[in-house]
Amino acid sequence: MKKLKRSARLVEMTQYLLFRPHTLIPLTTFADRYSSAKSSISEDLAIIKEVFELEGLGELLTMAGAAGGVKFIPKVPKAISLQFIKKLCEKLAQPERILPGEFIYMSDILGQPSIMNEVGKMFASAFAGRDIDVVMTVETKGIPLAYATASYLNLPVVIVRRDNRVTEGSAVSINYVSGSNKRIQTMSLARRAMKEESKVLIVDDFMRAGGTIQGMMDLLKEFRATLKGVGVFVESGEVVEHLVEDYISLARLTEMDAKTKHIAVVPGNYFDNEEVQNE
Amino acid sequence: MKKLKRSARLVEMTQYLLFRPHTLIPLTTFADRYSSAKSSISEDLAIIKEVFELEGLGELLTMAGAAGGVKFIPKVPKAISLQFIKKLCEKLAQPERILPGEFIYMSDILGQPSIMNEVGKMFASAFAGRDIDVVMTVETKGIPLAYATASYLNLPVVIVRRDNRVTEGSAVSINYVSGSNKRIQTMSLARRAMKEESKVLIVDDFMRAGGTIQGMMDLLKEFRATLKGVGVFVESGEVVEHLVEDYISLARLTEMDAKTKHIAVVPGNYFDNEEVQNE
Questions:
Q1: What are the residue boundaries of the Phosphoribosyltransferase domain, all occurrences included (chains A, B) (predicted)?
Q2: Which of A35, A210, B88, B136 is 20–30 Å from A27 (CA)?
Q3: Chain-chain contact of B140 with A159 (C-beta, under 8 angstroms)
Q4: Distance (Å) from the alpha carbon of A279 to chain B's nearest alpha carbon
Q5: Contacts of B180 in chain A (CB under 8 A)
């Protein structure tokens, strides 16, 4: 690459880092790329670091030494996320979202990549420090959330199928009871879809009693995999006893009455302390 | 926001533009944001524009006048995309990908957000000039491609379900014959999931005869929607007669022999002219 002026180099390095989250980039990569001295690169990184922090984009970690370099860790401050979630809660509380069977219509929200990216960034912030190999979800609605999260964590995604029509060679199937309708259902995952002993983050769009997530946790055992975290976009707060104890939720559906057409949605447990501070 | 130095402003504007593709941003937005003169902002944009073009990230369109501003159009040059696709073709041609029933195992590739983002950028480049309201796909494997594409085009995604268990109020179901196994199958879409008369881009991961895509096209009629384009990641070149005529493919499976364990995958029709130029 031809030698760039500092101004152009800053633009170039910014996009380079933004598209490579959780990836260690040796300073020599930049120095070679721009035919610049490492000292200039370090000065550039200091400027970028300041803006990323100011903007709530994330941290720029610099590691010294032979194996050193710089790593961009996307991390949105909770206070910024909370503002975003509060607006989403208002949208989710629209009466016309009430569906038969106490379901809530969210496809319009889940269908917006810009919202999914924000939500993915929140999960990536929440789970940034954990040692994770793969993000898992079950088809269909959790998929965009899992990809957005995985994208910011620089991890692959594994999608569990809701049937056993898997056409990908040998597969592991388990039965689970969905909390929503108490029916026994099947979920399955191809053997080759996930390495044994993987460290897994489970992400899903909605959790009522947690039967579906419990199902995925049972599936993990078949792969001798370890659960590293559970993130749900919206949880139903009407359930007294959850099958899953340790999870992060971004929003909580606290009331839904089909007769009076009343829904109430509040920020989830991820913001518990933040809420207290704000009020 | 406090007044930033030019260097910091460049970093800030770069990330701002990258996260808002296909969105018109008035110059006053930047001028107000950084308490800077419009002339300085214009100079910054010229620097960013040059780097974006040099890097093959896309175009920065500046529109003059009262309704003017700047718009980032992600667009990867075909020559860069072709290099990426050629490497993917090599990966796809690994003999262990052959599955019973002449399926090809792609879940590991579809499971990598970074690859999906690249592929999404290619579709966004290919369809950038078309007037599209929504990106449509059918569950399950096309979903990450649809989101990646829609993210770069700043559009919402609509996911067609492969059953009629839609729990989202009234839905339209159609029957279609999947080219893969000649069985009659059902796909459905909730009425509220897509506005009537929408302009639609269809995206899917794999196309054999095109029965599934034809099914989505039939579904469009029920919504009085218009097809604006079809993008498939991998097409099977072994099929003589496609049900779908006008589509863009990024890769083409030309041979698959389960006995000899031979697969051949070449770049798709998107690169047809590019290929000729290169060879």
A1: 108-250
A2: B88
A3: yes
A4: 25
A5: none
What pLDDT is recorded for position A215?
A: 96
Q: Is B150 on the interface with A (CB under 8 A)?
A: yes
**Euclidean distance between CA atoms B252 and B242, whole angstroms:** 13
Decide if B163 touches A, using CB distance below 8 A. Answer: no
Is the minimum CB–CB distance between A51 and chain B shorter than 8 Å? yes
Which residue in A55, A100, A113 is closest to B12 by CB distance?
A55
Q: Per-residue pLDDT averaged across B31-39, rounded?
A: 91
Interval B198-207 mean pLDDT = 97
pLDDT of amino acid B18: 97
Inform me whether the pLDDT recorded for B167 exceeds 90.
Answer: no
Nearest residue to B1 (alpha-carbon basis) of B25, B44, B32: B32
Whose CA is closest to B132, among B194, B199, B81, B78? B199
Give the pair of three-digit tokens for residue B23.
């969105």
Q: Is residue B214 predicted with pLDDT exceeding 70?
A: yes
Q: Is residue B146 a contact partner of residue A147, using CB atoms and an 8 Å limit?
A: no
- Determine contact: A11 vs chain B, CB below 8 A: yes
Q: What angle do CA A33, A35, A41 make, to 5 degrees?
A: 80
Residues sharing a CB contact under 8 Å with residue B152, sequence separation 6 or more, in sequence order: B21, B22, B74, B120, B121, B123, B124
- Measured between beta carbons, which residues in chain B are less than 8 angstroms from residue A117? 19, 151
Domain spans of chain B, in order of start: 6-74, 78-277
- Could you tell me if A258 lies within 8 Å of chain B, comparing CB atoms? no
Q: Report the DSSP beta bridge partners of residue B176.
A: B185
* Single pTM value for the model: 0.96
Residue B181 is predicted with a pLDDT of 67
The answer to whether the CB atoms of A156 and B108 lie below 8 A apart is yes
Binary contact (B103, A167; C-beta < 8 A): yes
Structure confidence at residue B2 (pLDDT): 60
* Nearest-angstrom CA–CA distance, B75 and A13: 19
* Contact call for residues A200 and A225 (beta carbons, < 8 A): yes
The CATH topology of domain A78-277 is: Rossmann fold (3.40.50)
In total, the C-beta contacts within 8 angstroms joining chain A to chain B are: 146
CATH, domain range A6-74: 1.10.10.10
**Regions of chain A where pLDDT drops below 50:** 279
H helices of chain A, in order, are 6-18, 27-34, 38-54, 78-92, 107-110, 113-126, 143-153, 211-222, 272-278
Residues from chain A that touch B114, judged by Cβ atoms under 8 A, are: 151, 154
A18 close to B (CB below 8 A): yes
Give me the pLDDT at residue A103, please.
Answer: 83
Å from A97 to nearest chain B CA?
9
CB B233 within 8 Å of CB B250: yes
